[in-house]
Amino acid sequence: MSVDMARFEKRAEVIKAMANAARLVIVEELSRNEKTVGALTELVGLDISTVSRHLMILRHAGIVSCRKNGTRVLYRLRTPCVLNFFDCVEKVLNGDDESTDCCLSDSCEKT
Amino acid sequence: MSVDMARFEKRAEVIKAMANAARLVIVEELSRNEKTVGALTELVGLDISTVSRHLMILRHAGIVSCRKNGTRVLYRLRTPCVLNFFDCVEKVLNGDDESTDCCLSDSCEKT
DNA sequence: ACACTATTTGTAATATTGTACAAATATACA
DNA sequence: TGTATATTTGTACAATATTACAAATAGTGT
Question: Does B108 reside within a domain?
Answer without folding.
Answer: no
